[in-house]
UniProtKB/TrEMBL annotation:
This is Phosphoribosylglycinamide formyltransferase. One of its GO terms (cellular component) is cytosol. It comes from Streptomyces griseoruber. Catalyzes the transfer of a formyl group from 10-formyltetrahydrofolate to 5-phospho-ribosyl-glycinamide (GAR), producing 5-phospho-ribosyl-N-formylglycinamide (FGAR) and tetrahydrofolate. The record marks 147 as: Raises pKa of active site His. HAMAP family: PurN (MF_01930). It catalyses: N(1)-(5-phospho-beta-D-ribosyl)glycinamide + (6R)-10-formyltetrahydrofolate = N(2)-formyl-N(1)-(5-phospho-beta-D-ribosyl)glycinamide + (6S)-5,6,7,8-tetrahydrofolate + H(+). Pathway: Purine metabolism; IMP biosynthesis via de novo pathway; N(2)-formyl-N(1)-(5-phospho-D-ribosyl)glycinamide from N(1)-(5-phospho-D-ribosyl)glycinamide (10-formyl THF route): step 1/1.
Amino acid sequence: KRLVVLVSGSGTNLQALLDEIAATGAEAYGAEIVAVGADRDGIEGLARAERAGIPTFVTKVRDHGSREEWDAALTGAVAAHEPDLVVSAGFMKIVGKEFLARYGGRFVNTHPALLPSFPGAHGVRDALAYGARVTGCTVHFVDDGVDTGPIIAQGVVEVRDEDDESALHERIKDVERRLLVEVVGRLARNGYRIEGRKVVIQ
Ligand code: GRF
């Protein structure tokens, strides 16, 4: 299966996928990363792709006259690589109708909280501020909401009294990277069905 991974930052989730595929082999893993896209340049996530010899593209909102035009441009940039599955690994933009029309049902996101708790751009900070005793990460299909699509898998992480946002986020990312690698491989190898809010992986 062909994967396109979308990033906006450090790309450690992307790196986990790259390392797993390098270690296991694309054949056995069931997927290869054919391109990495971002909404901004100069980020470590793009550097990681370049070091791995993987084509990259950047589609910036401000380069387009409207959000819809950006969405169309992003859809085209992704489609050029003919992915079977698109993975948002820290991609910090909400895609629009055209992208979802094309990739809905084949677009997976990872979120650093136990959805439906703490959706949005500050899931780690919000869980900490709320005083949650456990939080974690969620891998889900993207739908037309924000972090509201059908859940594929979740991982639980204890919150410690001494945690600040970055310490907690690092501990969540340790679980998240393993969860994402495991889920993407299973989706790619086994195939899956989405039945309402349920995801059935064969
Ligand atoms: C991940 O925790 C992701 O869930 C969140 O931002 C983080 C991205 O980390 N949206 P990285 O860029 O993969 O290191």
